[in-house]
């Protein structure tokens, strides 16, 4: 049986898993679940994921939720296309960056800047704290870029690149985010490379294609 991924196309974390699946060339079916819609999440979905979040992955009779767990499961399920380095210290750096992306980038850059500006809430004072934190975050994240221009420490995108891509893709859609990215040319160049890479995978995964 093929894999089924439950989630919504708009979700950053569903996009992360979809990018990993596409990079590993693992066939899957996306079952749309909009947890913010009226009457959602449904009782049936809560049986699969009692936390009511997305994504959830079904592989045969195996049910798995939480993006980090899904990503590591897919890494081990399809080892012929590795997205994590083999060196234990490099792997630790990748996990460190994923935590920074989850705890800081997602909170400040996506919810603090992208969401208000995409909702046409032109309240500069409201997003000012998130913008200030985003500037610091971007300086920190940029230091993770390797000589190859990727976060994966390889000459091609890896897990951490696919983790970061949906967040920066959203941030770049906001006027404030786009302006800030222009002041960080290495990160902007990385985003351009990753979008080009997504064209070879499944371009409609990105927010810029929705």
What is the topology?
Elements: E1 3-7, H1 12-23, E2 28-32, H2 43-48, E3 56-59, E4 62-65, H3 67-77, H4 88-118, H5 124-142, H6 159-173, H7 175-182, H8 185-201
Parallel strand pairs: 1-2
Antiparallel strand pairs: 1-3, 3-4
Helix pairs in contact: 1-3, 1-6, 4-5, 4-6, 6-7
Question: Which key phrases capture this entry?
Answer:
Glutathione S-transferase Yfyf (Class Pi), Chain A, domain 2, 4 strands, alpha+beta, single chain, 4-stranded mixed sheet, Glutaredoxin, 9% strand, 210 residues, 2 domains
Describe the structure.
The chain has 210 residues and is an alpha+beta fold. It folds into two domains: 3-77, Glutaredoxin (3-Layer(aba) Sandwich), CATH 3.40.30; 88-209, Glutathione S-transferase Yfyf (Class Pi), Chain A, domain 2. Helices cover 57% and strands 9% of the residues. Strands 2-1-3-4 form a four-stranded mixed sheet, covered by helices on one side. Helix 1 links the parallel strand 1 (3-7) and strand 2. The radius of gyration is 17 Å and the shape is globular. It starts with a strand and ends in a 9-residue tail after the last helix.
Q: Class of the largest domain in CATH?
A: Mainly Alpha
- Shape descriptor reads globular
Q: What's the count of strands?
A: 4
Task: Please identify, by name, the CATH architecture of the largest domain.
Answer: Up-down Bundle
Distance N to C terminus: 29 Å
């Amino acid at each position: 049986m093929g894999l089924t991924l439950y989630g919504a196309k708009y979700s950053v974390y569903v996009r992360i898993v979809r990018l990993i699946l596409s990079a590993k060339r693992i066939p899957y079916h996306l079952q749309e679940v909009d947890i913010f819609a009226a009457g959602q999440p449904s009782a049936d979905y809560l049986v699969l994921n009692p936390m009511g979040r997305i994504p959830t992955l079904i592989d045969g009779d195996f049910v798995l939720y939480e993006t980090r767990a899904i990503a590591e499961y897919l890494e081990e399920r399809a080892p012929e296309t590795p997205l994590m380095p083999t060196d234990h210290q490099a792997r630790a750096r990748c996990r460190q960056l994923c935590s920074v992306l989850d705890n800081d980038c997602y909170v400040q850059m996506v919810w603090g800047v992208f969401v208000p500006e995409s909702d046409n809430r032109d309240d500069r004072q409201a997003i000012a704290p998130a913008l200030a934190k985003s500037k610091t975050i971007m300086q920190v994240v940029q230091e993770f870029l390797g000589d190859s221009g990727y976060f994966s420490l390889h000459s091609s995108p890896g897990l951490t690149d696919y983790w970061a891509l949906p967040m920066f893709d959203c941030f770049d859609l906001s006027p404030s985010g786009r302006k800030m990215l222009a002041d960080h040319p290495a990160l902007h160049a990385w985003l351009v490379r990753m979008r080009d890479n997504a064209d070879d995978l499944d371009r409609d995964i990105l927010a810029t294609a929705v």
